[in-house]
Amino acid sequence: MPTHIARTFMSGNSEAVRLPKGIGFGPGSQVRIEREGNRVVLTCIESEADRWQRDATKLLDDLRRLRSREVVERDRRDPDWWPERPGL
User: Fold this and answer.
1) How many CA atoms lie within 13 A of 67 on its CB side?
2) Structural domain tally of the chain?
């Protein structure tokens, strides 16, 4: 992983640092900040909504992959594919 060097600066009454492209967590991400001696550790906090979104996206991707594997011809489908609906 490449090393980047940045300088701190004042942002209002807070000391801040810009994260270089490719290192950031994305705009609006919540992070946990911990100081370990000389080091400052940022850990992205994934919210429950983010986890649901990630899981839903993975599920949809998996379903798309399954769907794209084989197109079943209409006459080869299971005969019970569509339920009987008399009167419709």
Assistant:
1) 6
2) 1
